[in-house]
Amino acid sequence: MSQHQDPAVASPRARLRTVIAALVIAVSVILAPVAVVGTWARGQLVDTDRFVQTFAPLAGDPAVQSFLTDRVTQAVDDNLDIDALVNDLMQGIAGLGLPPRAKEAAGLLTGPAAEGVRSLIRSAVERTVTSPRFAQVWERSLRESHGRAIAILQGDPDTAVQLSQDGVLSLELATVIQQVKQVLIEQGFGFASRIPEIERSIPIVKADSLVQARSFYQFTVALGYWLPWIVLGLLIAGLATAPRRIRALAWAGAGFAVALLLLAAGLSVGRQFFIGSVTPSVMPSATAEAFFDQATASLHPAIWILVVLSALVAAGAWLAGSSRPALAIRSVIPRRRRAH
């Protein structure tokens, strides 16, 4: 048996290198799914164009349109006493000296008239939400909201709202005053040029969750940028350490394929968890499905592309190895070429 042992793994030093290489490659395989998700999350957090491209199509989804119609209609109804308005209208009509039967009929029409007004409001909201113009408004709102949120989380000194280290969200008056000053100058008020720079802020709210949000943002951005390079570096280090590099590459490719397949399965589980956690308290299940599917629309193709690439690398490295099946296959290929 010892006579046929591979010299590359015969010595204790070579066996130690094999163990170290296996551990390093295993760590890179374990971190690979995290790197994929981190890169995707970083793109959504940092790149406003990518964020808008991801969520803008939701404006045309029927489930989302129905959800927005319900919420907007409910908001209007909560802030507008339709029953009182219709009742006042009917009382005004009744005070016009109508006959007794007409007054009675007006009183009976109060309820149906209120429901009719609600129906008209809902129809108007629905027409607005399903119109092409709303899609433009939705996209613009996404862009502005994302830009403002990122400016706050990044601590942009040019934004009017700042988040301190202790969780205090403050309105910085310096930016506002500068804008007011510029408007006054453009309108011909020369004295406005004498307004000095004023550093003053107004505390708006204090919440530890804001600091946690900034910390999560900074961590995710750093993770999404550096982790793919760490995974690649670990893989290269493991392959460089391994005595049998072709075999190590085959195992690494297979490991990456399995890890990424588990990630794809995990997304399916996460989808069900997300839908269950927000339905029905936050939104209907159809709307939740639309949001999750649209948010991960760019993640699924990336995962499957990496799975295929990993499988191809594993197959190619195995075929280039020294195993008996690989040698048999390689010995058949030239014969077939010569036959043709």
Walk me through the structure.
With 340 residues, the protein is mainly α. Among the domains are: 172-203, no CATH class; 244-340. Helix content is 75%, strand content 4%. It has 13 helices and three strands; from the N terminus they run αααααααββαβααααα. It has helices spanning 12-46, 48-55, 62-79, 82-94, 100-108, 110-129, 132-154, 173-186, 208-241, 245-278, 285-295, 299-319, 324-339, and strands at residues 161-163, 168-172, 201-206. Strands 1-2-3 form a three-stranded antiparallel β-sheet. Helix 1 packs antiparallel against helix 9, helix 10 (245-278) packs antiparallel against helix 11 and helix 10 (245-278) packs antiparallel against helix 12 (299-319). The longest helix is centred in the first third of the chain and has 35 residues, at 12-46. It is elongated and about 110 Å long. The model has no long low-confidence stretch (mean pLDDT 78).
